[in-house]
Automatic annotation (TrEMBL):
<protein>
    <recommendedName>
        <fullName>Helitron helicase-like domain-containing protein</fullName>
    </recommendedName>
</protein>
<dbReference type="Pfam" id="PF14214">
    <property type="entry name" value="Helitron_like_N"/>
</dbReference>
<dbReference type="InterPro" id="IPR025476">
    <property type="entry name" value="Helitron_helicase-like"/>
</dbReference>
<feature type="domain" description="Helitron helicase-like">
    <location>
        <begin position="2"/>
        <end position="101"/>
    </location>
</feature>
Amino acid sequence: MGSKRDMTQRYQDGMAIVLNNGKPDIFLTMTCNPSWIEITSELGLHQTPQDRPDLLTRIFRSKFEQLKDDVINKGVLGRVKSYMYVTEFQKRGLPHVYMLLILDTDDKLRGPEEYDSVVKPEIPRHESEPELYEAVLKHMKHRPCGVLNQSSPCMKNGHCKKRYPKDFCEETRQRNNSYPEYRRSNIKSIKYLYKYVYKDPDQVAMEVHRGTGMDEIQQYVDARWICAPEALWKIFKFTLYKLYPSVERLQIHLPDHHQVRFYKHQRITDVLNDNQNAVTMLTEFFALNQMDPHARNYLNREIPEHYCWLKGVKKW
C-alpha cells in the first residue's frame, strides 16, 4: 500500500465511480489541529502536541468519524450517493483527509445561490455568528504577507506562494469545467482532482545503483518517509482510505497471457497442467455468456453490478 502502482489502481477505481455515478460535487478537507482542547488537556508538563503522536492520531480519527457521520449518514450537505476519502500526513506529521462527495441527483448544487448555501468564503459577522467568527479568525485566516511581511513562510522570490491577497469578487460565479469562483480561482478538471487525492506519499532522497536486476520492493522501502502519527495510524489499524460503492477490478488479458500465482516449492509443470490456473474473470465472462442469456445484456465492465465473483471457485 502506498506504492505508485497502488496509487494508480485506486485513482482508476475513483474514475470508475465517476463513470457510474457522475462528477463529484464537493471536495472536503479536514486537518488535525494541535490546539484542540481534547489534545492540549492531556499533555503533561512541558509537553507539546508533537510529543504525543498517539493523541494526535486518536483525537483526529475520532473527530473525522464524527464528520463522516454528519456528512454521510445525516446528510448535512445533502444526501450522499458515493464518496471516497484518503488519509495522509503533513510534513510536520499532522493527519489530513481529502474527501470527495457525489450527491444524490435531487441534492446536487446547480447554481451560485446553492453554492453559497454550503460554502462561505467571507469572514462571518460577529453579531450574528460569534462562535464561527472567532473560529475563522483563529484558524482560517492567511496572515499578512507580501509587502506587509516579507519574512512570512508563504513568501518565495518576493511573492506569496498561495497567491494572496486574492481579488475581491462581488458574487459567486459558475465557470466552465472548473470549481465555482467564490472570490477565488481554482483547478479545472475532474481527472486532476482524483489524481490529487491519490497523489504519492512523502519520500526521501535515495541512491539507485545500476544493475541487471531491480528490487522494486526494496526501492519502495528505501524511499518511503513515515512520520510517527502515520506509523501509529497503521498500528491502530485505522482506515487510510475508503471508496463507496466498492469497485471490482476486472482482469483484462490476451489469450493465455494472464497472471498466474504460485509458490516457489511448486513444480512449474504442475502449475501449467492445473486447469484452474487457466480460469480468469475474463474467461469466465465468456463462459457466463454461453450459459446465461441474461448476462448477454451487459458489457464486461457492467457484470459486477449484476453478478458476484466467487474467488474460491472462480465463477461469476
